[in-house]
Design a protein that fits this description.
This protein is mainly beta and 171 residues long. Helix content is 0%, strand content 42%.
Amino acid sequence: MTHTLEGQQKRAYFAVSAPPLATPTPTPDPNPKPTLTAEPTAPATVTPVPSAPQIVDPQGQAPKEATVGQPFRYTLQATGYPPPTFELVSGPAGMTVSNPGSVSRAAGQPSSAATGQIDWTPTAAEIGVVAVIIRASNSLGSNDYAFEINVRAARTGNQSGPRSYLPIVQK
């Protein structure tokens, strides 16, 4: 701002300030919301939806191998609720299927899967391909699973592979 005083030009600076602003005072809410304190709650229990079994093979349709005289052990899994049980529909003599139990779940959660343990020791008469059918059942239905086991002869003694012999030469 410029101000003229008796013919001379002088400059003056003015500081403009506003009165201090009042700090707003919070006013109480006329409709306060209640505050809830958190109380410990038990974990929720989820009940699986009832369903017929479906067998799951961890190796898929990959060939299963067994050796004469050696125990063959294989585990299948089946989903479904109530948890299914397993049975051998067809297979070689001496083969068994047991129901060792439910697949592990978090504490307090019911299982909707089970395992079936297949045990068998093949004999020399069973060398070749052996067909097997396993069934998983519950109150809502059943599911069959067919697979093959390739049975091979046991290795005996010196079957480590071909050998070369050098002739003995006398002088």
